[in-house]
């Protein structure tokens, strides 16, 4: 029987509280601004991926996602394969007894346990898991930082899913992207009582992909330039301080303002991009009502490139936030899965 080499891994979803929106280099996925996210618990939203390779496999690489065959010829996936193969090749060149895995076709099998491409950061978990699984298969000694540089080329936000806890992505300055990598702001254990309520307003695939949306925003929005040059750099500092100080009010305020700013640049794009819908706006109103009733910010909404809401809150406010949300929205039309799920925002470092 022909040899088959195999390795599996899981990677969690991350949800940004300072959004990545805009590429200064679309080929290398180099962003126009730094960003920051919270990695969710692997037991909740994650991609499970098995990578295998064998000289007996048909000659081309394959990728199966949730049972359906995906195109691997795109530049992003190819960039990840190429970088990982090059690292493996250097091991093989240095040690002639190492099996020549880099020359074998790859077979990747991935499963998401959440809706794909519905603004739930599926590509983030997907590329992080793909890169990590192949790195394990090739027995690469690569650090999460190095893997984040590779995963970034698959999908920008994927670089942040290589770390658990509170994670930044430094936009970097180098033209080759060598310094555009993720870093851990704080481990999950630093602020373990953070929770995320995911409200699935629509599980449908988003109509404007993040890649095409970003490029149109960069090209046409006049709000965008000040967001990238001034607003985000200031908020990156405020957010890192909020995490260090475990200051939920500051964390929540910056999270909501940054989501608003990102969706404002979408609306300011020509033609405009509408990711939020009436259901999303109802969620914003509920968060405002919760915070008004509490007399301070105890809940914070954020929306990616889709209508689904992610509500951050601390465990001590579970009843006031998740409980009230479920009561308020349980009866409302438009919430697929009716209630949404509360998940722990405390993925461990991979
Ligand atoms: O990684 P991409 O290309 O799917 O872009 C993700 C963009 C947002 O989710 C909207 C923001 C972010 O920082 O995750």
From TrEMBL:
User: Can you provide one Gene Ontology molecular function annotated for this UniProt record?
Assistant: diphosphomevalonate decarboxylase activity
Record protein name field: Diphosphomevalonate decarboxylase
Q: Which reaction equations make up its catalytic activity?
A: (R)-5-diphosphomevalonate + ATP = isopentenyl diphosphate + ADP + phosphate + CO2
What's the source species for this entry?
A: Melanomma pulvis-pyrius CBS 109.77
Q: Which PANTHER family match?
A: DIPHOSPHOMEVALONATE DECARBOXYLASE
UniProt GO cellular component terms: cytosol
rRNA-binding among the record's keywords? no
Question: Can you tell me which family this protein belongs to?
Answer: Belongs to the diphosphomevalonate decarboxylase family.
Residue intervals of the Mvd1 C-terminal domain = 196-350
Instruction: Identify which top EC class this enzyme belongs to.
Output: lyase
Q: Name one GO biological process term.
A: isopentenyl diphosphate biosynthetic process, mevalonate pathway
